Amino acid sequence: MSSSAIYTNLGAKSWTYHYDTDVSPVQEFHKRLPGYRETLLVPLDDVAKEFGVKAVFVKDESSRLGLPAFKILGASWGTFRAIADKTGIPLDTTLEDAAVAARKAKITLFAATEGNHGRAVARMGKILHLPTRIFMSRFADEETVKKVESEGAQVTVISGDYDAAVAKASVESSKDPNGLLVQDNAFEGYEQVPAWIVEGYSTLLIEAEEQLAARGLKATITVTPIGVGSLGHAVVAHCKSDGRRIRVLTVEPETAACLHHNLRVGGWTTIETSATIMSGMNCGTVSPISWPVFVKGVDASVTVSDLECHESVQYLHAHGIHAGPCGAASLAALRKVAAIDSNAVGLDSDAVVVLLSTEGARGYTVPKSTCSS
């Protein structure tokens, strides 16, 4: 560990990930969804000059399949695969035929969320004309609840935290003989659907790789936000497979740093969290199917404050990237690592950095500066 603020794992640089399944059908499925198109890979030339690296890019997920976040990629594939598994339809089935099969089976979709995942599952419910029930924690704000409800879902806000919402969604789905839980974090006895959701995120990583290749570049560092860890799992899998040697930097809120804590103590545990403007990352438990991948494949982990994140939101907005706090966390992480220990992820003159901006602009309470002005 190079600093008290940064966790580093030197062994991750040479570790290799091996896919258990072929993820190429995932992209073909996503191309069948209404409104599919690649999201933008936006250069941040000023940031690259600031850090003395070759290039910095933002993979801008502020508008993905008509929703303001990347989550629909995992939720759509996870929902489709779960329906296919339950009904026996082949994986090249059209959305229309999948909807017919799901309605015949009287399927109801269930999920827990801090916002974007639940809205994405609800969108799949709308596309497939299926009833959807979404459970949210006590930290849910009214605006986010209304956005999930706008997709046609029934939303229940519970008195507990996110982990409690996941437990509630699981219990309620098990009470329904045709209930289908589409959750992006695994727990004992529930691993397959979260694994499919991880596969779903491979689309944005392959897109970014192809967009860089069109510029004659290859990534050397990818920075990813961490909530329960499904996106981060996909990032590590991509960056450490097929001969790629891309370093992975993860970022979490200081008040909800479950992965960072686990990496430091060297074991998988649940932590208590508190409110953060990075609400989609307010998770106390790393998905257990992702933890073994993280402990071997994450090169560096850092936490950021709400104020640091807010400053990065403002910077990105000023440069035409309309990111929300979870999306801007990647830039905040890069700035922090560059200031403390640039060697932690290989920030040198040959570095090509990809920042994953996972959500579009949204309202939040602006954190107060601790400095007098």
Automatic annotation (TrEMBL):
Pfam families xrefs: PALP (PF00291)
Annotated Tryptophan synthase beta chain-like PALP domain residues: 34-355
Gene3D superfamilies (UniProt xref): 3.40.50.1100
Transmembrane parts of this sequence: none
Signal peptide: none
Record-given protein name: Tryptophan synthase beta chain-like PALP domain-containing protein
Organism: Exophiala xenobiotica
Organism ancestry: Eukaryota, Fungi, Dikarya, Ascomycota, Pezizomycotina
